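During data preparation, a discrete fold description was generated, and the record follows.
___
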Amino acid sequence: MYVKIHQSKDRHVVAICDEDLIGKTFSQGKLILEITERFYKGDKLSDEETYELMKNAINLNIVGKKAIKLALKHRLITKENIIKIKSIPHAQVYQIE
């Protein structure tokens, strides 16, 4: 999986994506899921390394069957958090302050 951390002054988003989805775009109705290198292609990490970053993150953006499965396994998201666009699962988790 690819993991990229986006940081601003007081927030960060951990973007996680299955390796085979980078550079692809999926659309269904009005929904568009664009999996850009700029946003998602960071470091290639193992499941264990990815989980360590996910469990400490406040904001997550997760795309792909493998990435979603890892988040579900560790109860970081629920099935209700997931939307599918052309059968590609996607979940976002944000803490609102």
Observations:
- Residues 67 and 80 are 16 Å apart (CA to CA).
- DSSP finds three helices and eight strands in the chain.
